[in-house]
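Hi all, a correction to my earlier message: I attached the wrong file for N-acetyltransferase domain-containing protein. Here's the right sequence:
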Amino acid sequence: MAQPMGLTAADAEFSEATPEQRQISWKLCGQSWAAPMSMDDYVEREQHMAEHELNRDGGCRYWVLYLKGYPRQVIASCETTRKPMLISDGNGRPARSGHGYAVTNVYTNPSYRRQGMAAFLLRRVQEQMDADSDCSVLFSDSGARYYDGLGWSAFASRSATLTVLPSSASPQQPTSQTRPLDHSNLPRLCALDELHLTEALNSIPPDRKTRVAFLPTHPSISWHLARAEFDAAKIFSSPPTTTPITIGAITATHTAWIYWSHDWRNRLLRVLRIVRASRDGGTADQRVGEFAALLGAAVAEARRWGLARVVVWNPAEEIKLGCKSVGNAQPEGVKVVFEDRVEGWIPSLRWNGGRGLEEVAWEQNNGYCWC
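and the right structure:
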């Protein structure tokens, strides 16, 4: 079908996607994002993830613009995933429960680009999200300016990147300070993490600043792991039994742990969360030592799978010190860089109704928040 000249919003219909429109949208997205998987595998992955605990039963909704009268002619599409969160008003009262949406897979059919269609789609999606949420977030690969014009304000964000340098030595194994996590550990650890985060947010002295934090629930964490494991099964048709995929590590004392996810497309290991939930706190040196051991386990996992980087979003000060400790311990094998995130995955947040974001802090903006 030839593209209409001067396409406007009047030429488009907005709706929740039908099953057929989902398939069409996934195939369009796959043109840019499927590699290194095949298109068929990419579409199968998206269908598989639609049935995940986080997404099913309306947890994730799929939206499309299509050419009026031609429902198979998808113009633009996106997805919104509803997640639990905590919101503190800064008045000293306990944080209240809320919900926010993660907006993902924003894509415009190449035949309809540069005509304002994505903006029109997102404004209609905002109306839907505002009906039952407190805010929405997205992680922009298009810079900060575009989404800022639509109400999503970029938040300053730092990252620590541990680049895994080529080495002729055998891959370093995790030390006796840590052991691998498996899926049976996750429900209990996620519940402890939620409790720890809630206590931490409620312990911040009143300062009249609104604070928001997405809860690191088991569905949120396991979504990342399920996605990476599905990709691995497709990319590595016969994964070597000597190289199992691990999902994280925990210290021998069980006081601290880390979750990570393999990003095969970008050849990196994304740290979803590093947690220390011991009530005694320990000394600063003990905490840094534990974080260094966990990050060392992440580096070992990245090296085993040929991933080039371990990336930590918005590391706390003691986790930064843990990163430096790994770099100092492996000067010929790991290069550590701290930098502002100004290009990929820029975190942006919009309040329900487009209210202003003055004096708002996004707490615990770590890798698990992306979806």
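Sorry for the mix-up. Residues 9-157+344-369 form a domain with the Aminopeptidase fold (CATH 3.40.630.30).
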